[in-house]
Write a structure and sequence with these properties.
The chain folds into 2 domains: 138 residues, FAD/NAD(P)-binding domain; 191 residues, FAD/NAD(P)-binding domain (3-Layer(bba) Sandwich), CATH 3.50.50. Helices cover 32% and strands 23% of the residues. It has 11 helices and 24 strands. The strands form 8 sheets. Strands 5-2-1-9-20 form a 5-stranded parallel β-sheet. Strands 13-12-11-17 form a 4-stranded parallel β-sheet. The chain is globular.
Length: 439
């Protein structure tokens, strides 16, 4: 008798941990992802701010799963799911049949009904996003070196981060440290320490999911390194040369988005009504009500906690759900009763900057250096691949000692897709006409 086929869509935390759990059992596993690597998303902001290189937080899926001979990895994007025919169709038309399906395609950033803001304010969900952020951050300093107009130079040196959750806090803190430490001596025509980093949070406090004392501690740490934290204020409009906050226009060329997420559109093909963010309601065992052979895990799944709030879109939630979905698939194959999913909350943490972080670990609230050490340890523990762990540890140690960031590379066609680059283009045209173009 042929082994049942379990198709796992998505190679993020939920999908990878589901595939690895099933790989140790007697089933045929097919993992499908549009990328050939697993990405450690919690450290994406460090790629965006040049603390790490892309290869240090990503690992090829085939390398991770090579020792499991019952696992296939397919590179492709799933375009359609037919839950009645039990097939998934790839973008090129190929079909893959399944006995059980685990959908874990994650989420992207959401602009709250303003998709036109995306070109001006990139989000942070992929390596491409991180590299685009890195390009814009360091280009802003390069263009400021050549800018003679004081107003435009200050606009180039104004960085606005929209969203006061962990990603926004980490981005704002890292940019402030770049300006005040990493590149403070690198330029001749301006002082990078005059850069403004502004963190906007529409809610009453940053890190609203954390206890109030940790939110206050994080705000103090950000302000200590020069970040302007504005709570109760959000972006009402974003244009290439300014962001509107209430009725005030703030000149800036660099806006970074960390405010909202929307689930993968694949969830809408599963035959159930999704919530406003695109998340799929699941049963306690993570399956669909009318299709118990289909499981949804990670950021795409909508499952409420005992207090009525949905489980947060965090890596530990996704990991535990991936493993739980795999366990229930195996129990179904063996005719055993399924287990409801219970999230074991090991705590939450966010880093603000050098030797500064906040952490909530059960009933323990930590901040400062101790929280930062805990943050380092946990992220190294969950990072996939021994080599990546070693490389990241070495990079962190070197950065702590020297204040340097070793991945300060501006890659790609620097003029493309970013309005501020037109400033340099205009000066280049002036030079060709024999006009004065500055220093």
């Amino acid at each position: 008798m042929a082994s049942p086929t379990v198709v796992v869509v998505g190679g993020g935390f939920a999908g990878l941990y589901a595939a690895r759990s099933l790989a140790r059992r007697g089933v045929h596993v097919v993992l499908i992802d549009r990328l050939n690597y697993h990405l450690f998303q919690p450290l994406l902001y460090q790629v965006a701010t040049a603390a790490l290189s892309p290869g240090e937080i990503a690992e090829p899926l085939r390398a991770i799963l090579r020792k499991y001979r019952n696992v296939e990895v397919l590179l492709g994007e799933v375009e359609h799911v037919d839950v009645n025919a039990r097939t998934v169709t790839l973008e090129d038309g190929d079909e893959v049949r399944y006995d059980y399906l685990v959908v874990a395609t994650g989420a992207r950033h959401s602009y709250f009904a303003h998709p036109e803001w995306e070109p001006m304010a990139p989000g942070l969900k992929s390596l491409a996003d991180a590299l685009e952020m890195r390009r814009r951050i360091f280009l802003a300093f390069e263009l400021a070196e050549r800018e003679e107009d004081p107003a435009r130079q200050q606009a180039l040196l104004t960085f606005v981060v929209v969203g006061g959750g962990p990603t926004g806090v980490e981005l704002a803190g890292a940019i402030a440290e770049i300006a005040r430490h990493t590149i403070s001596q690198d330029f001749r025509h301006f002082d990078p320490r005059q850069a403004r980093v502004i963190l906007l949070e529409r809610g009453e406090r940053i890190l609203e999911a954390y206890p109030p004392d940790l939110s206050a501690s994080a705000q103090r740490a950000l302000e200590h390194i020069g970040v302007e934290v504005r709570t109760g204020e959000g972006a009402t409009d974003i244009q290439p040369d300014h962001v509107t906050i209430g009725d005030h226009q703030l000149p800036t060329y660099t806006v970074l988005w960390a405010a909202g997420v929307a689930s993968s559109p694949l969830g809408r093909q599963l035959g159930v009504e999704v919530d406003k963010s695109g998340r799929v309601p699941v049963q306690p065992d993570l399956s669909l009500a009318d299709h118990p052979e289909v499981f949804v895990a990670g950021d795409l799944a909508l499952l409420r906690q005992p207090n009525g709030k949905p489980l947060p879109g965090l890596a530990p939630v996704a990991i535990q759900q991936g493993e739980a979905a795999a366990d229930n698939v195996w129990r179904s194959i063996n005719g055993e009763g399924r287990r409801p999913f219970h999230y074991f909350d090991r705590g939450s943490m966010a880093t603000i900057g050098r030797a500064a972080a906040v952490a909530e670990i059960r009933f323990l609230h930590l901040h400062g250096f101790i929280a930062w050490l805990a943050w380092l340890f946990i992220h190294l523990l969950y990072l996939i691949g021994f080599e990546n762990r070693l490389l990241v540890l070495v990079q962190w140690a070197a950065s702590y000692i020297s204040y340097e960031r070793g991945a300060r590379l501006i890659t790609g066609p620097w003029q493309a897709g970013w309005p501020a680059a037109e400033l340099v283009g205009a000066k280049g045209n002036a030079k060709e006409r024999g006009q004065s173009v500055g220093r």
